[in-house]
Amino acid sequence: MRTQRQVVDYSLKKRAVLRELLAGRVGTYDVCDASPYLKNAARFHGEPTEERCPICRSENLIHVHYIYGDELKQSAGQARTLAELPVLAMTLREFQVFVVEVCLGCDWNHLVEQFLLGRDGLAEGGSEQGAVGGVTATGAGPARERRREAQR
Ligand SMILES: [Zn+2]
User: Fold this and answer.
1) Deepest in the core among 12, 46, 69, 92, taking most CB within 10 A?
2) Could you tell me if residue 28 is inside a domain?
3) Cβ neighbours of residue 109 closer than 8 Å, sequence gap 6 or more
4) Distance 109 CA to ligand 1 centre (A)
5) With 70 as the cut, is the pLDDT of residue 147 above it?
6) Cα dihedral sign, 37-43-48-50
7) Domain membership flag for residue 140
8) Domain count, the chain
9) What separation in Å is there between the alpha carbon of 1 and the centre of ligand 1?
10) What's the CA-to-centroid distance between 117 and ligand 1, angstroms?
11) Which residues are registered as beta bridge partners of 120?
């Protein structure tokens, strides 16, 4: 998404949990504990993926996108479909998205990533924000700026 920034990737953490599980240091009970709310969110707002569940290997994972931010008011903390996010990103200045993967077969769930969306991230095309700090003038460009943020 165009305004996506400050991406935090949790795949290392996920691998660590799976290692612990393989080693028998945690049980499937501890990691397959999706709440009824999370599973409902997955059913009604989830984004199906091609990725198999790492635990039961019988269902594909579903990604649920939770949104947080002051501007959202009573919608904060709700799940949204992936298709709704770009619309919100053009309407609001900034909000946080948490992506959670869920398996409806065995209740496995884990945080995938988090990032910011919203118009504050639109620095392209010589808008007022694009000129801040002379980023465009130095030739670094907003695209590179975004990549740097993604690596943080
Ligand atoms: Zn599963």
Assistant:
1) 46
2) yes
3) 31, 32, 33, 34, 38, 100, 101, 102, 103
4) 9
5) no
6) positive
7) no
8) 1
9) 28
10) 29
11) none
- Does residue 13 form part of some domain? yes
Q: Which domain holds residue 84?
A: 5-124
Q: Flag the least confident range among 17-21, 36-40, 88-92, 120-124.
A: 120-124
CA of 58 to the centre of ligand 1 (A): 6
Cross-strand pairs, 79: 66
Which residues, including other chains, have CB under 8 Å from residue 38's CB and lie 6 or more apart? Answer: 64, 100, 102, 109
User: Distance, CA 101 to ligand 1 centroid (Å)?
Assistant: 10
Distance in Å, CA 56 to ligand 1 centroid? 4
The pLDDT tens digits for 15-29 are 999 999 999 999 999
pLDDT tens digits for 44-69?
999 999 999 999 999 999 999 999 99
How far away, in angstroms, is 61 Cα from ligand 1 center? 7
Q: Give domain status of residue 142, yes or no.
A: no
The neighbourhood of ligand 1, an ion, using CB within 5 A, equals 53, 55-56, 103, 105-106, 108
Residue located via tokens 């700026």: 145
Ligand 1 center to 111 CA (angstroms) = 15
For strands 95-102 and 109-117, give the pairing: antiparallel
pTM: 0.79
